[in-house]
Design goal:
Blueprint: E1 2-7, H1 13-27, E2 34-38, H2 45-57, E3 62-66, E4 83-87, H3 89-98, H4 113-132, E5 136-142, H5 154-173, E6 176-181, E7 184-189
Parallel strand pairs: 1-5, 1-6, 2-3, 2-4, 4-5
Antiparallel strand pairs: 6-7
Helix pairs in contact: 3-5, 4-5
C-alpha cells in the first residue's frame, strides 16, 4: 500500500501520517516494524531542535533510519511487511538539489531533464522494491504551491515545479492521497480514513 500525505507547514501532516502508520502496523497479520525514514540533515540550531522534538514525540516502537539522499536503498534496510514512513519528500528534494554531500557536488549541478528522470527513477525503484516486500509506504510532503507561485526566483521556481512533479508521480502510484489542513484530513484519492 502506498499513501501520500501532504499539507502546509505545521498543518499536522506528520502526526497524521504517524497515527496512520501505527494503525496499519497494529492491523498487520504478519510481524512487521514501524520504520521512520528521516530525510532531514542537521544544518543549523533550528533544524537540530526540530529533529530533537520529532524524535521525542515518537514512541520507542519506531525504528529510525536517517537517509537524506538514497531513498531507493530503504527496502534493503527494512524487512518484509514493514510500515515505512518517509518524512519528508520536501526536504529530500532539497537535499538532492542543493546539497554538496550527494556525490561530492550538487546532484543537480545543472537543473535538467536527465536529473529530473533520476529522481523519479529513485522513487520508482523504492516503490517497486517496497511492493515486492509487501511493505506499506507512507510519504509525507509539504504543499508549497497552492495555485500560481508568487516567487520569481528561477531556482525557487525550479524547486517548486520539481516538487510538484514528484507529488504527481507519487500520487499516481498511491492507493491513497490525503491533504492535512489545520489537523483535518481531506481524502483526495482512495478510501476515506476514519
Amino acid at each position: 500500500m502506498i499513501i501520500f500525505v501532504s499539507g502546509g507547514a505545521r498543518s499536522g501532516k506528520s502526526r497524521f501520517a504517524e497515527e496512520k502508520a501505527m494503525m496499519i502496523h497494529h492491523q498487520r497479520d504478519i510481524p512487521s516494524r514501524l520504520v521512520y525514514v528521516a530525510t532531514a540533515k542537521i544544518t543549523d540550531d533550528e533544524m537540530a531542535e526540530r529533529i530533537r522534538f520529532h524524535k521525542e514525540d515518537r514512541t520507542e516502537s519506531w525504528h529510525t533510519i536517517e537517509e537524506p539522499f538514497d531513498l531507493a536503498s530503504i527496502p534493503l534496510k527494512t524487512k518484509i511487511g514493514d510500515v515505512v514512513l518517509i518524512d519528508c519528500l520536501t526536504i529530500w528534494l532539497s537535499n538532492m538539489l542543493y546539497s554538496s554531500d550527494t556525490h561530492g557536488s550538487s546532484f543537480f549541478t545543472e537543473f535538467n531533464e536527465v536529473n529530473q528522470i533520476g529522481v523519479i527513477n529513485m522513487l520508482q525503484t523504492l516503490i517497486m522494491k517496497a511492493k515486492e516486500k509487501h511493505q506499506t509506504l507512507i510519504f509525507v510532503s509539504n504543499d508549497v504551491n497552492e495555485g500560481e507561485p508568487m516567487v520569481m526566483d528561477s531556482m525557487v521556481l525550479d524547486y517548486i515545479y520539481e516538487l510538484e512533479r514528484i507529488h504527481q508521480y507519487v500520487v499516481k502510484q498511491a492507493d491513497s492521497a490525503v491533504q492535512v489542513i489545520a489537523g483535518m484530513a481531506l481524502e483526495w484519492k482512495g478510501e476515506e480514513f476514519s
